[in-house]
Amino acid sequence: MEFFDTILWPIRWVIEAVLAGAHQGLEFLGMDPTSGAAWFLSIATLVLIVRAALIPVFVRQIRSQRRMMEIAPELKKIQDKYKGKKDQFSREAMSRETMALYGKAGTNPFSSCLPLLLQMPIFFGLFRVLSTAAEGRAGVSFMTQDLAEQFGQAALFGLAPLQATMAFAFSDASTLSSSATVAVIATAAVMVVLMSASQFVTQLQIMSKNQSPAMKESPMYRQQRILLYMLPLVFLFSGVYFSLGVMTYWLVSNFWTMGQQFVVIRNMPTPGSDAAKARDARLAKKRERKGIVLIEDDGAEEEAEEPKQRQQPVSKDRAKKKKKKRK
Question: Packing angle between helix 88-105 and helix 72-81, nearest 10 degrees?
Answer without folding.
Answer: 170
